[in-house]
Design brief:
Layout lengths: L5 H27 L9 H11 L7 E4 L6 E3 L4 E5 H5 L3 H18 L3 H29 L3 H38 L8 H38 L1
Helix pairs in contact: 1-7, 2-4, 4-6, 4-7, 5-6, 6-7
Pfam families: Zn_peptidase_2
InterPro entries: Zn_peptidase_2
Protein name: Zinc metallopeptidase
Length: about 230
């Protein structure tokens, strides 16, 4: 009852997602062994970049784990994983400056970031409710429940789609500022691109999987209504 031809396409997209995860981890490890010519740590680069943009009041905090780096827009804090915080590598600087890119977006009221922040509470609710509505709809063959589940699931998909320009823009800002501030040389840009592009690919894969799942549910819903 749950099988659909679209499942094959989703499985391919899931394979892309797994490959993207390996890619980002592999590129991070590769360039974690390549020291940046500036000799800066991730924390130092992030601090200098924040200060250069007038964000003196945005603190930087180390957090446990690997690739757990993020910008907290609620508390306005850049949090860097311990290897990035203390590392002197191309990988460390790339990830640190990417997170600062989000802080700069916040300062400049970047439209997609604002929209994503406003959508986040609804997305949390939708992500929790949608699976139960969809499963219930399929089990009891209740198209109204499936339709409602699709509506909630669409919110979660929209959030992932909106995340794409946010992430790409943060990386673009980071790359340009790292060169202009002298954190890396033009020759080191290749490594920065590989690290950040691989990370961006994981968001693309996640959004693609969600979009395909949404399309599958819509096709099932439409087919059920036709019958």
């Amino acid at each position: 009852m749950f099988f659909h031809p679209m499942d094959f396409v989703i499985l391919i997209a899931f394979g892309l997602s797994v490959w993207a995860q390996f890619k980002v981890k592999g590129n991070f490890r590769r360039y974690a062994d390549v020291p940046a010519s500036s000799g800066l740590t991730g924390e130092q680069a992030a601090r200098q970049l924040l200060d250069s943009q007038g964000l003196h009041d945005v603190p930087i905090e180390p957090v446990p784990g690997a690739l757990t780096d993020h910008y907290d827009p609620i508390h306005r804090v850049v949090r860097l994983s311990e290897p990035v915080y203390a590392g002197h590598s191309i990988s460390s600087l790339s990830v640190a400056c990417h997170e600062v890119g989000h802080a700069i977006q916040h300062q400049n009221a970047y439209p997609f970031l604002k929209f994503r922040h406003r959508l986040f509470p609804l997305t949390r609710l939708a992500s929790g409710v949608a699976p139960f509505l969809l499963i219930g709809g399929f089990l009891f063959q209740a198209t109204n429940l499936i339709g409602l589940g699709i509506l909630f699931f669409s919110v979660a998909v929209l959030f992932q789609v909106i995340t794409l320009p946010v992430e790409f823009n943060a990386s673009s800002r980071a790359k340009a500022l790292m060169v202009s501030e002298g954190f890396i040389t033009n020759e080191e840009e290749r490594g920065v691109n590989k690290v950040l592009n691989a990370a961006a690919l994981t968001y693309v894969a996640a959004a693609l999987i969600s979009l395909l799942e949404l399309l599958k549910y819509v096709m099932i819903f439409t087919s059920a209504n036709d019958e």
